[in-house]
Amino acid sequence: MADERQIIDDYTERVGRHLTGPARERAKAELGEHLSDAAEAGELDEALSRLGKPEEAAATFAELRETPPAPVDVRFIAVVIDNLPLVGVTIALLVQGIVRTVEFGQGFGLAFPPWVYFEIGDGCVAIGPMICNVAAYDHAGLLYSLGVPLALLWSIVGLGLLEARNGLTPGKRLMKLRVVSENGLRIHPVTGVVRRLSLLLGPLAWVDWAPVVWGDRRRVLDRLTETKVVRAK
């Protein structure tokens, strides 16, 4: 019986890892009771076979499986809240550029999200073909070379890992939203990061939101990663 108890606990725990929110504890409790009854009847193996893999069993408990994607306006508000570090750095770059223009008559370039470029020795790698030749970013110093990468690290990796943990970020928690897979399950950490990689494209990241133009509530990367943002229950 001890071995069966371990099997039950292990299975319910693995099922719970695929779920987020209240569904996780509900699934573990109901499955634990069901499998315990099956074990007492000598039918534990048959019950596990019917349930299938933990991910398959979890899908039957996914409360958000049939929930449609959340409205875009609510998502935009959550995005602004989540990316406040990136917004703050961009505003700081704007102010710094204006000051230098007034004081020294130098022009400056600015985009949101900011362009990303890397200097390698005498070479330069950038998404924007002209960025490496634009000296307008040189005035930013540490604000651009350190502030922008750190802000992007938070926006891509930090928020992506938070979404993988429980589907929530600060902005989504405030707006009562949650990220789940198309089956309503918890997303993988790699998926959480990948669905945010468009930010590395600078202002071209807005292309990711192009489906909004024709009324789609899912970004391009939402579809590529098979995820959706829904209203949390």
Number of domains: 2
What would the average pLDDT be, to the nearest integer?
86
Tally the helices: what do you get? Answer: 10
Helix content: 40-55%
Q: Which percent range describes the beta-strand content?
A: 5-15%
Main sheet makeup: 2 strands, antiparallel
Protein name: RDD family protein
Organism: Nonomuraea terrae
Subcellular location: Cell membrane
Transmembrane segments: 74-95, 142-162
Main features:
mainly alpha, 8% strand, 233 residues, 10 helices, 2 domains, two-stranded antiparallel ribbon
Compile the SSE list and pairings:
Layout: H1 2-16, H2 22-40, H3 44-51, H4 54-59, H5 72-82, H6 84-104, E1 117-120, E2 123-126, H7 142-166, H8 170-174, E3 177-181, H9 189-194, H10 220-224, E4 227-231
Organism: Nonomuraea terrae
Protein name: RDD family protein
Domain RDD: 70-223
How would you characterize the overall build of this protein?
This protein has 233 residues and is mainly alpha-helical. The protein folds into two domains: 58 residues; 160 residues, no CATH class. Helices cover 52% and strands 8% of the residues. It is built from ten helices and four strands, in the order H-H-H-H-H-H-E-E-H-H-E-H-H-E. A two-stranded antiparallel sheet has the order 1-2. Helix 1 runs antiparallel to helix 2, helix 2 runs antiparallel to helix 3 and helix 6 packs antiparallel against helix 7. The longest helix has 25 residues. It is elongated and about 85 Å long. It starts with a helix and ends with a strand. The mean pLDDT is 86. It is found in: Cell membrane. Keywords: Cell membrane, Membrane, Transmembrane, Transmembrane helix. It comes from Nonomuraea terrae. This is RDD family protein. It holds the Pfam family RDD.
